[in-house]
Hints:
Blueprint: E1 2-16, E2 20-27, E3 31-37, H1 46-51, E4 57-65, E5 68-76, H2 85-101, H3 109-124, H4 128-142, E6 163-167, E7 171-174, E8 187-188, H5 189-197, H6 203-207, H7 210-220, H8 227-232
Parallel strand pairs: 3-5
Antiparallel strand pairs: 1-2, 1-4, 2-3, 4-5, 6-7, 6-8
Amino acid sequence: MRYVGEPAFVLHARPWRETSLLVEVLSADHGRIGLVARGVSGPKKHVLRAALQPLQSIRFDAVQKGELAQLAVAEAVDAAPLLQGDAALAAFYVNELCLRLAPRHVPQPELHAAYAQVRKRLRAGEPLAWTLRRFERDLLEALGVGLVFEVDGDGGDIDPAARYRLDPEQGPRRLLGERSGERSATATGRALLALAAGAAPENEDLASLRLPLRAVLLHHLGGRGLKSWDMLGELGRLGAPRPPAAA
């Protein structure tokens, strides 16, 4: 199979052998594609190397041979967002989710669009916690395993004042009694309704979405967590108000 002028986002790139790169990209028409970029370490290849950095929007030509495609040409469509600190860690998390959950060679136009949106929000410096929760919602929906957040697993309306755990298969399940430690793994009804509507909830409600959504993602990851979860420890701190510096 031949790709010509294929639009994609770069998810990951790592050195391979002495002069080449192994690159993972997310395209709209063909999903996740693995590319072999040969001979990119020379001094005349800096433009190509720059185009193959994570978060970069590119168009590329390649020929599919087996599992990996042989890259012929790649050019940047725009400048990748220049992110630092928590925003850079958030981008790493977004890319890792796509790498782990997006299948190879399966059209993913909705996920491609969701990636473009989260990339835009990261560039604009929008609040990180809310940016990530929306992307998690959109990713699950794009992969065909999304949840309905307006009603519970029994078909009843979500109660804004109640708390819910998220069942990966059945959706929100109301918390009827609180066992030790169970409350922290549940989302408020207000948060679920806000997520469904795309309206940013209050900070406390927003924070309640992190662990329930993580549980759903972990289910679809086959129970094997993400490196970014280990790196960040508390991913929910992204976008949260920082405590004052110690005196």
